[in-house]
Automatic annotation (TrEMBL):
SUPFAM superfamilies: Protein kinase-like (PK-like)
InterPro entries noted in UniProt: Kinase-like_dom_sf (IPR011009)
Gene3D superfamilies, per database record: 3.90.1200.10
Protein name: Trehalose synthase
Length: 522
């Protein structure tokens, strides 16, 4: 691709205008676009670089600022890495924008799954060639391993980033929402491999956007593609669908123990994997790793975060219409609001008993576990992608990861309930379906927590709170997760809003439970 830029001069001179014409509805269809419930007021080109050019197409690395208005009327800005490929006189349903340049009509497309873009990145990575952006900033490639590629295709579009499968067992992961710093997914995966934890992907190389003034953004990385059966979310949905077919009308909990021995075995192995990951992370004393003793400021931080997010959730819920069962859940939460605030404030007295803080996964759930024939692989260590990297790279309690898995079991149960309800399948009535799936989530959660705690206690019991305090402290981390989920669902997936609301209520019940409250006075 050595053709001169003159072939696309007319297009490049109108880049600012063309970015504004990118179709909002097309952008909001992308899984990685995180402001689906917000109104896009404007789009502005922040910076761009030409990665490759030919007579029929040009590949551009664009950084685009999206200005949007939230449900509450607040105006916000998010910057996205938006690689595009522009083709002459080529249009189909995936076209994001069309520009008529007079002599030629250009079609603008998302480039991440286009083999020309992937070849271009691979060439830049292997050559070590730095690419200059219009602003003077640079795209810098860093190669760790040396391989070759030939073709590409899109993986399922469930990620908050973009995943493109290469022919030689590799994935290009594109970090869409730009955040200042080294992405934790890259950093954590690399360090775990380096220190002998091999249940993660290997990394071939990565790309940084460097403004030359101390600000860097991680744009993408080439990592190992793991041959897997499916992720544990997919596996669990299929499993639960079959479980419902077997239900014989017996006691829910007894039925789960009798019929879910194989899944319980899987959960014990997963608990062991996560415990071993935390133990390994606690032993790394390089860079921003190692173990810290949490103090009152750390506890204040999570409590203040819960309170702030809870109040934000209340704002989002105003003037909205909900179904009867959701309205009932909201009323129950509002009735217990003062008790909830008092209970989480009381947990401050437990700050000496929180265990240790270390680098953790940060956004652990069933989709982050790939099931192989002989085990599992942990993926996506970037933490919660809506938060800044400085926050995602902090040390935290390993109970945050435990809470993430617990919430994911709950989500899996209700996802199957909604699927059963929507498909109108015959058999047991919906109330029994919901109760059975809730019983399954409770049993699986108990097995997971017990297995995890026992394994940690065998190696380094000080990493987590002891038995006397763990229920109350774990409830705090589950509440933090459930409130965060509720904000996401009310903005992006209202039909699932019920799931985190029920999670919040369960946490309130645990925090106000007599056995938990005794901890505060003990």
């Amino acid at each position: 691709m050595h053709i001169g830029e003159g072939d696309f001069d007319g297009f490049l001179s109108k880049m600012d205008y063309i970015v504004k014409t990118i179709k909002d509805d097309k952008v909001q269809e992308f899984r990685w676009f995180q402001e689906k419930a917000s109104y896009i007021k404007d789009k502005m080109l922040f910076d761009y670089a030409i990665l490759g050019i030919d007579r029929s197409f040009i590949i551009i690395a664009a950084l685009i600022d999206f200005i949007f208005e939230t449900i509450s009327g607040e105006e916000k800005k998010s910057r996205y890495y938006f690689p595009i490929i522009v083709r002459k006189n080529s249009f189909d349903d995936s076209c994001l924008a069309i520009y008529d340049g007079g002599d030629c009509v250009y079609g603008v497309y998302d480039a991440v799954d286009d083999v020309e873009y992937i070849r271009c990145l691979d060439d830049i990575l292997r050559s070590g060639r730095k690419i200059e952006f219009k602003s003077g900033s640079r795209l810098k490639p860093y190669m760790i391993l040396n391989h070759d590629i030939y073709s590409s295709k899109r993986l399922n579009n469930k990620s908050s980033n973009s995943l493109t499968l290469l022919s030689k067992n590799e994935i290009v992961k594109t970090f869409r929402r730009m955040a200042n710093g080294m992405n934790p997914d890259l950093e954590m995966t690399y360090m775990l491999r380096k220190y002998g934890f091999h249940d993660v992907q290997d990394i071939r190389g990565y790309f940084l956007y460097d403004d030359g003034k101390g600000t860097i953004y991680t744009l993408s990385m080439f990592s190992q593609y793991i041959e897997n059966v499916e992720d544990m979310w997919q596996y669990t949905q299929k499993y639960l669908k079959e479980l419902l077919k077997k239900y014989d009308g017996s006691d829910f909990v007894s039925f789960v123990y009798k019929n879910c021995g194989d899944y319980i075995g899987e959960v014990k192995k997963i608990a062991e994997l996560i415990a071993n990951m935390h133990i390994k992370l606690s032993l790394i004393n390089e860079g921003n790793f190692g173990v810290l003793e949490p103090d009152e400021s750390n506890i204040d931080e999570i409590i203040n975060q819960i309170i702030s997010n809870f109040n934000l959730l209340l704002d989002y819920m105003k003037n909205q219409d909900y179904s009867g069962d959701v309205e009932s859940l909201i009323k129950e939460i509002m009735d217990d609001k003062n008790l909830l605030m008092e209970s989480i404030e009381n947990i401050k007295s437990l700050s000496p008993y929180f265990g240790k803080y270390l680098r953790c996964h940060g956004d652990l759930h069933l989709e982050q576990l790939l099931k192989k024939e002989d085990g599992y692989i942990l993926i996506d260590f970037e933490g919660e992608p809506t938060k800044p990297i400085s926050e995602r790279s902090r040390h935290m309690s390993p109970l945050k990861d435990v809470a993430g898995m617990i919430r994911s079991f709950d989500y899996a149960a209700y996802s199957q309930f909604f699927a059963h309800k929507e498909n109108g399948e015959d058999g047991i009535d919906l109330e029994k379906v919901e109760n059975l799936l809730s019983a399954w989530a409770t049993v699986i959660t108990n097995v997971f927590v017990e297995s995890y705690v026992n394994l940690i206690d065998e190696h380094d019991a000080d990493l987590i709170p002891d038995e006397k305090y763990i229920t109350a402290i774990l409830a705090l981390f589950k509440l933090d997760k459930a409130v965060f989920e509720a904000i996401y669902e009310v903005n992006n997936r209202p039909s699932w809003f019920k799931i985190p609301l029920k999670g919040i209520i369960e946490c309130i019940d645990e925090l106000k439970n007599i056995s938990s409250l005794e901890v505060y006075n003990g």
